[in-house]
Each structure stands twice: as structure tokens, then as C-alpha cells.
Fold each of these.
Amino acid sequence: MKAIKREMRRVILIGDSSSKRTLFFEKAAKALDVPFRVVDWEALTETSALDLFEGAAVKIDPPSYSIVHLSQMKEQLEAYQRTLRHLAKADCAFFNSPETICRMLDKRETNRRLKAREILVTDMFPEEIKTADQLEETMREKHCYSVFVKPSCFSGAAGVAAFRMHPRSGNRKLYTSCRLERGRLVNTKKLTCMEESVRIRRMLDDLLALGCVVERWHPKAEFQGKSYDLRIVFQFGHIISMVARQSRGPITNLHLNNQAMSVEDLELGETIQQKIASVCKDAWEAFSGISVADSESKFVFGGANMAGMDLLLEKGTMRPRIIEMNGQGDLIYQDIYNENRIYLEQVRILSGI
Ligand SMILES: Nc1ncnc2c1ncn2[C@@H]1O[C@H](COP(=O)(O)OP(=O)(O)OP(=O)(O)O)[C@@H](O)[C@H]1O
Ligand SMILES: [Mg+2]
């Protein structure tokens, strides 16, 4: 027993001491009797000493933000990215390296990287679109009248908007969970639909000024009258969790009052499931740089060991398309409140048991 313990790597979690992520990761470490500590984001800055991480296995969870103004979120995100770049200098074994987390935070970079490998992704416009005028002009040129506008590096659906414009009548609809409050964009947890063109264009101008990607709005497969997409957690070379997110609106994120459901209930069939597994495997390899066979149940040093993949199935064809990948997208309530398999596997492999 002692011999095994000596070979164990110390595991450090950078996160918020009181978050669910920390609570359940710690629970996994205790269950496996692995030496573990939390370093709170509050104790870290862009210049902090890094010697405490030396020789440890380090997982970086996101800080919990309480900010609601999108412009402040942008500033906070930039500071976060600077701290990640500083952390990259630590002499330790990262679960997902800070560079990997930053790369996946960037929706354009993720989309490009996957597309270069001919992996089916959401159809992103290559143009940098800065204003509502430019957006509508581009939509007309492409004959694409339904789009998603998404801040390039935000998460949790902050600033995500689904926009539809009728080519002849010019009628417009914008679905988003943010709203303009005293001239400032505020993030909420409630999806609303705007129909007034002047207000929509103002909102789009403000959103696009944050730095956004624009994508074709792909109609999603439906189950019992609601559309859904999948959040898949892929780690150590395999899929460990798949949850469907069902919604009446176009944006499926679960904090927007949408429902999680088990993928088994969708009865997807063998062929579709194989296609999903194959897209995930290819996406994984595009990021980790090594083959699934070589990373199966092993710790890969210096790159990616986990990705939370958002994947939609096209309505009709059921072809899987990757929407985005999240380098910290592993918090799955259905898992932590049941077997806690995701974090147990992480702790086991990180510590080298
Ligand atoms: N091009 C698209 N076509 C159809 N639906 C889309 C498209 N892009 C995004 N969505 C929907 O909007 C949701 C949010 O988009 P996305 O995952 O890119 O944003 P996010 O803020 O990074 O979310 P999170 O960080 O919570 O994963 C997706 O889960 C999906 O339901
Ligand atoms: Mg997402």
C-alpha cells in the first residue's frame, strides 16, 4: 500500500473553494485516498509565485463569475486569459494545459482547427462582422437568413443570439438571454424573443462590437416536439458522458430553463451513435494531437485530456455537427449527483494510481 502511495502524484485543483465542481472533485479524491488540495482563484494573480504547483498534477476549473454586464465580462475574461498564460509557466502536469483551455475558449480557432481536418462543424462565416448593417448585408449575399451570433470567447450562453430575417418582408426576430439595460448589455437566465427591428439592430450592433462569430443557424433534431443538442464529455480517449439538452427555443443551455434528458431515451440507433462517436474521436485527435488509441485511459502530458463537446444532430439528416469544444466543460449534474464517474476517473488517472 505504501509503495503505491509514494508513486502517486499530488493533485491540485485551481477553482472556487465552495463551487459544486470543487466539492465533487474533492469527494472523488477522498474516495480514492489521493493527496489533494484546492488553490482558490482568489489567491491567484497574473504574477503569483508558481512553486506550489511543482511536480503536481493540476486541474484548472473556471472561476465563478457574478458579473452580469457583458462589457465587464469581456475585461474579466481577458484578465483570466492573462492568468492562464502565467500559469502555463508552472512546472507541473496539467490536466488540460492553459494553452488548450485558451484555444478552446476561442470559438473561431476551434471551428477552424476542426474544419481543417474535415470534421463537420457548424458553418461559421469567415468574415469578421462588426455591425448590424454588415451582418444583414452578408446574410443577403450568402442567402442565409437565419444565423447565430456569439461572442467569440464567452461561455454559458452569455451574449449568444439567434437572429432571423425575412428576405422579402424584412421582418426580424432575435432570440437571446441578454437585454439592454440603461444602454448596457446585461446577461440573464431567461431567453426572450425580440421582434422590433430598431431594438434588434441596436442589440446586434452592441453584441457585434464585443467581437463575435456568426454561424448559419442549423435546425436541430427534435424529440417530442422540442429540439435538442448533446453535451458530450470526452476524456482520456473515450466518451464518458453524454447528455441531451432539450429546449423549446433555439438555445439549449441548461441554465436557461431547458431540460436535460438521457440520450438512451432518444433511441438514436446504432448508425447515428457510431457517427457521433467517430466525430468526437476526430475532434479529440484534432486537439490532443495524438490518436485515441494512444490516449485511451492514459494521462497525456502537455496538452488536452478532456473536452466538453457541444454537438447537434441536423434536423432531417441527423448528421452530427460540432458546435464548440470546452476545455473546462465537464460539470455534469446527472453525473456528480449519481456515480461521480467523470471526476473519479480524472482523479484516478491524474494521480497515476
Ligand atoms: N450554429 C448553430 N446552430 C444551431 N444552434 C446553435 C448554433 N450555435 C449555437 N447553438 C445553440 O446555442 C447554444 C449555445 O452555443 P455555444 O455552445 O456556442 O455557446 P456557449 O456560451 O459557449 O455555451 P457553453 O459555454 O454553456 O457551452 C448551443 O448549445 C446550441 O443549442
Ligand atoms: Mg456550449
Amino acid sequence: MTHELGHFFELAHIWGDDEGKCPSTGGADDGIDDTPPQAYPTYNCAVFPKLDGCTRSAPGIMFMNYMDYTNDNCQQMFTHGQVAKMQAQIHPFALSYSLTQHPDVLQYPDQAEENNYVVYPNPGDGRINVRFNQVSGNVKGIRVVNMLGQVLVSETITNQRGFYYYDLSRAGTGIYFVQIEFADKTDVKKVVFR
Ligand SMILES: [Zn+2]
């Protein structure tokens, strides 16, 4: 699914779908500067370093990239260049901009009474406010994770307050998830930084 979402945000296969050609001989490559040239897709789970006709010396091709065909459990990374290309697609009027305009994303503030809290502003600039309508003591933790599942905020709560603020303005544009751990469930809200 991560591989297919890469395509959704306009990433090409890392080997360039060009039948073994290399950029040095007129091949398409993937249009990303910081992925090494690669001739063909990688299958199964390769051993590092793996060399091929387009990258003949170590550290070799990036077979562990999500945009290769390596087995799922051997894929683990996008490059900075790939991330920049994906993030560019949600900027106003880029190819995936419409995704950020879905009513569920734009609702401000989110008044879902059953959850008893709001996260705002959304979209925002990375500064997140979490306000609980009641201080019930039912809240056990707050986490913020990015689309790769990396944890940016992890706060364990023993004495719940009504309001929490996190400055993630340096985290970069994109989609993030605020996870609220209640005593009996974990709730998730998607927020967009732009
Ligand atoms: Zn693909």
C-alpha cells in the first residue's frame, strides 16, 4: 500500500521502467536526484550492498526503497527527494491538492461531540492545539505521528488538563495524525500542515 500511495503522489518506480537503460545512456530513471540509478526491479529480499548495471559500486542500488519491487518486509524508506516530490503534490492546485480540500479535513473546529475534543487549526502551519470539552481524567496520552509512522510527540498524561499545545512548525508540510489515548479507546484525527 505504501508503494501504491507513492504512485498516488506521482512517484515513479525507482528503476525508471526503462528496460534496463541507465540515465548515462539515455534511460528514464525515476526523476529523483537522490535515488541511485537502477536498471531493473529488485524481487525477493536482496542482500546489501546490491550492485547492478546502472550502479556498479557500493553502496549500490536502493532496493530497500518503497518504490522498488522488493518484498514488503524488506522495504523501509523514501528518500528526501521522493518526500519533497510527494509533498509538492498537496500544495495549492498541484495534482493531489484536492485531497486536502475534503470536507472531513477542512472541518473547523471539529465538533464531534462523541469525542469531546477538538484539534485546530486544520489545515494549519504545524502549531497544534488540542482542547478537551471536559476534563474527565479519561485521557491517558497524546501522540502525533507522521505518514511514515514516526512519532513526533508522545506525551503520557496522568493529570489531564483541558488544553495542550504542540509546536511542530518545523516538521514540514504534509499529513499528520493526532492520536488521543483514552482509557477505553484510541481516537485519531488527521491534520494537514501547509
Ligand atoms: Zn508500482
Amino acid sequence: MYFENLREYVEALEKAGQLKRIRTQVSVDLEIAEILRRVMYDNDGPAILFENVEGYDIPVLGNAFGSLRRLKMALDMENFEDIGERVTELTRLKMPHGLLNKFKMLPKLSEISDYGPKSTGSGPVTEIIEMNNPTLDNLPILKSFPNDSGRFITFGITVTKNPETEVRNMGVYRLQVIGPKKAIMHWQIHKRGALHFQINKEKMQKTEVAIVIGADPATVFSAIAPVPEGLDKFLFAGLTRKKGVDLVKCKTVDVEVPASAEIVLEGYVDPAELNTEGPFGDHTGYYTPAEPYPTFTLTGIMMRKKPIYLTTVVGKPILEDAYIGKVIERAFLPLVRLFQPEVVDFSMPPAGWFQGMAIVSIKKRYPGQAKKVMMGLWGMGQLSLTKILIVVDHDINVHDMNDVIWAVTTRSDPKRDTILIENAPTDTLDPASPLLNLGSKMGIDATKKTREEGYERPIQEEAVPDEGTVRLVTSKWNEYGFGQQNTI
Ligand SMILES: Cc1cc2nc3c(=O)[nH]c(=O)nc-3n(C[C@H](O)[C@H](O)[C@H](O)COP(=O)(O)O)c2cc1C
């Protein structure tokens, strides 16, 4: 069953023993962040609700999605690939021949229309509306690391509209608070919010935005997910939770937000108002240096009477965002396969902060196919930011680093099988790239080489035991005095 809002999810977490309430007074200044990081590093630590935050009367929720177990609850699914399957199913829908078959399609079509967002006049988020003197001062916004340049909203969902297509978007971009009505918007250049801002900037226009803090889990997930361009993320959220999201209009900007959100900050981002954002202790494990970013101005606040402030903290992996990244990796595999059908599996190891490295296994049929897959993936959405791509054969388990290293060291020759591409887009946060947003890529073709690919030596046969001996040894295993062993 889907969750309509964040608090229903919190209740479910508590019932499942997955939530800890902390009633001791805690500070937004470094203390909460340090507690959250410790709990997150401790594999499978619970979600935490800080109920007594010094100086604020709003509780803070952290680590809400910090385990695969919780994410399965949050999205109500065992297999995250279902999400991608639902999206690819849309691309496969074709009108059948014959009246009867058309009738058979009707339930499917009505199911899909049920996933779309619906506008309503009001909702829990409109319980409190402040348009006269809205302020960020009442929100328990955290400072996370000692050398952070200030306090950051880290889990706000920024809602924008593409000025040309009107397609709505949601993206989680952090905001550094610099005054009661001002915060710096850290939408990186490759992201969709930054694209909408750029289009408006060329017309000398401000970008209207709403920042949603705390929403139903599917909406939060959709804001982080690299959804294909042109697909409304509210529709994606509906597809994820199999129920459309109810939306209400903001009061001071022309933007719609989830009616059941906890807190909504309304305002605009002005291209003429740049400020220096950072340093910020980031999910690479390093402080991202200060850079200029545009500024958000607050024009209104809508919120529930007793809102929950949803937050997260980042730092050297593996923290909460790594689990969300794992779900994205699984959810998007069907979409990767849609464009690269030879792909069998795909992994973005969390220690590589996701954009750092990806490993993909393929069913290879023709020479050079691994390179074709690399080029395809580097051309797909946010995968264009992946720095190192390793392609292996389908017999390699991409989630087992020993298996991957074995493939790289036995099936690739560095000179023949490595490609380097200079001056390519790279993740804004990449601490090693020579320039901001521009670096090189490395592709390692660790698939078995064929004659056509220039492998002149006799192809070496993999050394594996014969079936008869395997059966014999397995059947006599107890007799040898070793005790039980899994059969092979
Ligand atoms: C906790 C968290 C914080 C994030 N902070 C930022 C950020 O400050 N800037 C940014 O561009 N992306 C950030 N991201 C990644 C984006 O949310 C993600 O790339 C998303 O797909 C962007 O959506 P878009 O392509 O629709 O813009 C963050 C993700 C998470 C999970």
C-alpha cells in the first residue's frame, strides 16, 4: 500500500521498529549531523526523529531512507526494477487491432491515468499560509561539518517548470541559508532545475520555484531519480507508488506542490543575484569548494500545523544517499536495457559515490560491442557524468568486486582495452577533475577478446572442474568428515 504522506511512513517505521525518537535536547549546529552520520555508518541503523531541537518547535527526521529494508517499505516493493518496468511498459503500449482487444486495453489505460497527478484546491499543507512576512528563521536547518560555510537545507525538493514545454520537474538540490529570506540554490549545471533557470535567464526572467520539505516517500524518491527528460516527475512518482499525487497551487508563485507535503517554501531564483555557495562537506567525503550559484528569495510559506522537517546528511560514503542510489541503480536497469538491450546487469558501487564508477555486464555478440555500450551509456542522461565505466561479460557478477577485478585483470589488456576520452562532462562534485564540470573518462573493456578484436594468441580455456567429479565430491563430502556443504 502506498503512503499518502511522510507522517504515515513515520508511523509505519515506528510500528516496524525502524524509528528511534530522541527526546534529549540536541543542537542543529553540528550535533544532529554527527548523530545521524554515526547511526548511518552503523549498517542498518534506524531512522531518527529528534523531538527536542534547541531553539525550534519543529521535530527533525533523519535517516528515514537509510537502508534497503526501509526503502522497500517506503516504496512498497520488493524488486525496485518494477519501477523501470512500469516506465518501459508505457513505451511498449500499442493500440491493438479489433474492437474486443481495444476494450481489453481499457483497464490498462485507466490504470495509467490513475497514476497522473491531480490538482486539488487545498490539502494539509495549506493549514498554515504565511505570505506577509515569511522567514526561514523558524526552520531547524542543520550545519553538518565544522568547515561548512553555514546551514544547509539538504533534503528540499525544488519544483520548477520547463518554460518551453511546461513539463514539471522536481530535483533535490541543497540550499545554503544566507538570511531570513535568502538561500543559495545549488542546482548543478547538468540538472534540470539549472536548465529551466538557464532558459528563463536568456529571457531575462526569474525562475519561480517551490521547495518541498517532507513529502510522501515516492515523491521524495522521484525528485532524486534521473528520470528521462520530458517525463513529468509527478507522473513518475505516481507510477512509482501506483497512485497519482494530489497537488495544490502555491500562493505566491505559479507552481504546484504535493497537497500532503509538510513544508513548502515559495519564491524565485534571480539570475542577477549570484552568491558564493560552500564550502560544504559533500557526499564525496571532501569539502566541495566555494563556487558562485544563484540566489533563492522566499516569498511565502505553506505548512502543516505541526510539520516534520525532513533532512539528511552526507559525507564519505556509505551514508543514507548510497541506499537511495542503489534503488535508482535497480529501478533504472530496465530503462538502460531499453536502449542497450545487450545489458544484463549494472552496478554503481556506493564507495564510488555513484557517478565515480559503474560496472555493466553484457551478452556480447560482435566485436567492439563493449565500446558501443560505453558510448551509449555515456550518452544517457546523468550516466554522462560517470567517470569510469567497466564492461564485463554476462558470466561476471557486477556486484562482486572480486569477480569484477578478476575479469579486469584476466580479460583486458590496458593498452588495447582501455579508452580515455578527454574534455568530457563530469560530475560537478568530482574532486579530481582538472576543471569544474569538465574532465576525462575511462572505459575498460573487460570482456573476453575474440580474434576479430585483435587477440592473436590461442584463446585460453577457463579451468573448471568436470561435472562428474563435482557430483562425486559433493556426494562424499560428509564422508570426508567436513560436515555439511552447499551443493554446487
Ligand atoms: C541528499 C541529496 C542531495 C543532493 N544535492 C544536490 C545538489 O545540491 N545539487 C544537485 O545538482 N544535485 C543534488 N542531488 C542530486 C539530484 O537530486 C539528482 O541528480 C536528481 O536526479 C536531479 O534531478 P534533475 O535531473 O531532475 O535535476 C542530491 C541528491 C541527494 C540524494
Amino acid sequence: MRLVPLLALGAILLVSWRAPAAAKEKKLPEKFNKSPYSLMSLSVGTPNSGWQLRAKKLKSSPHLRVKKGSGAFVYGHPALVLMLHRTSRDVGRMARGAKMLVGDLSAKSGGPLSGHRSHQSGRDADVGFYVRDPKGRAVTLDRFRQFGGDGKAKDGSGYMFDDHRNWLLVQSWIQDRRAGISHIFVAKPLRKRLLDYARKNKNYKLHLNAAAVLLKQPRSSSAHDDHFHVRIACPKRQAEICRG
Ligand SMILES: [Zn+2]
């Protein structure tokens, strides 16, 4: 006797729980609810106040490790996810020995994410620095570590900021025209360190100006001395719904 009302209540709850996402979708300009947009991943609003639809999940690969604890928040626009795979492979092939460590992207449907101001619309990713252990060997860490402008880990562990690989990563991001990187946030002393490193090698000088423009320490949030925060531009043909 009581099962039926309970099932009915369950159905009502399920419908009301699902309603916000569906309602959001309906508020998009009409064409975005039709093919081909209805089949695409969409990045809506700004990184600080936005959401996403049909996001792609980032998975670990031979060149990339998803950081423990970030597994539920590694959803992003495919342009971002594929860019991370391409550039981690690029660095891995040029300097074998370490994987890219990736933390949070966005939640599956986007929206506010604990510990971040942005990361709401599937265009942001936190990427750990490439590091060397106290013996100088390239290693992949399982968490982010803070580094100072002297290249040393601030926790006194002896880990060193790997100038070579971190520069190769920045260079690979700059050259990745498919996704179009719009920002790379990093602490000022590490920005200076990377640019100084590139200035010493004539092969890297070519990308110095682009790096100087893209690398910046955000004014409004934490110092980014334990990871890069990389953001891609709005995906193609989504300028009407994607901002910032
Ligand atoms: Zn971030």
C-alpha cells in the first residue's frame, strides 16, 4: 500500500532534481537546442559564472596523470581535454621521463567548484609543474608543490622546478593553435624564471613575446606558485553563448 505513494514521491523528486539542467538548456538561444549544436559540447557563460553541457572527461594516459581527488572534476570542453593530451604528449616526446600532472578542470555540468573562482564553464585546467627530485631525476608527483623564484620547493623537500620541461610545456601551449590558449596563470617569480630560461636559448627566443603576454599572475586569486592554470578561448561558433 505504501510503496505506490513512495514511488510517486521518488518520481517527483527525480523530476524536480533534473529540472534545473533542462531549464538552463531551454534558456539558450533556440538554435543551440537543435542539430548540430544539440550534439556538441557547449561552454556557456564566463569561467567565473558559467556551466557546460555534454562535457568530455579527462583520463590518465602514458603522458598525463590525473591528480588524486580531482577525478570527479575533470570534465571540460573537448577542445581543452584534447589540448591537454596533445601538449602532454608533446612534452613527453621532447623530454622523456615525466608525466603532466593535471588537477581540477570543471564539474560534469560546470557551475561553482569548491576551492576555485573560475573553472565553471569547462575552459580551465590546473596543471602541476614538471619537477626534478633531489638527485636531479625527472619525476611525476602525486600532488602540487609550491616553488619559489629560486626554483626550490618551498617545503624544503629538495624538489626542483624543472625549467626545461616547464618551458617546453609553455611553448607547446603557445603553439597549440587548435584550442587557442587565452591565459596561463602562474606566480610572478616563476614567470620570470621561465622567461629568463627561454632568453638564454636561441631556439626558444622565438616564443618569448607570446609567452610574456600569456603568462601572468592573476590579481584577484591565489599566487599560483604550485601549479599553472591554463584557460582556452571560447570554442568556435559558440561566441553567442560563451563569454570572457
Ligand atoms: Zn585554477
